[in-house]
What we know:
Elements: H1 9-12, H2 15-23, E1 42-44, E2 50-52, H3 61-85, E3 91-94, E4 110-113, H4 118-122, H5 126-132, H6 135-152, H7 164-170
Amino acid sequence: MVIGECFHARCRQRPDVQRQIVLRNLSLPTNLTPKDTASQQTRTLDSGAVVPVLQASTGSARTEEAVQAIAQAAFKLNALRENWLNPPEWTQRIPEVIPLGMTHSPYPDRIVAKAGHEKDLSERTLTKLYNARPAWLDAAHKALDMAVAHAYGWADYNPECPMKRFCNAYWR
């Protein structure tokens, strides 16, 4: 989010409001609270994204659509970042050990640099990625922001100015 460049003019004049906005928790969207997903059951979408199984009493088509949109946008963002951090042509995945009494490892595969790519891989960090902020990363974040805004029912949300929505709530 680019908070500093796009803060609503009335909020910019009131530092106390800025602190309240930043420090105030935002309640979860309707039908997506921990109570609504208490079954702890999940299912995997065709894209590979994992979503919670909603309680029958809360699982409206709109809620299910919002859940899937958020999951798919987050899954895509994670895949893009992962591919940038650990390009398949530079890395190999080594399965972790399987603890006694288990049929598969509960741990993620180890990612090891292929010969000749150790230095290249060591220079790939999330900090460097976010400092560079390539267009594909920005677009993936905006898509996730829009999916979350849709879940809240914010038709007036603008990803170019995310904090305006919060500021307007303080001045109505």
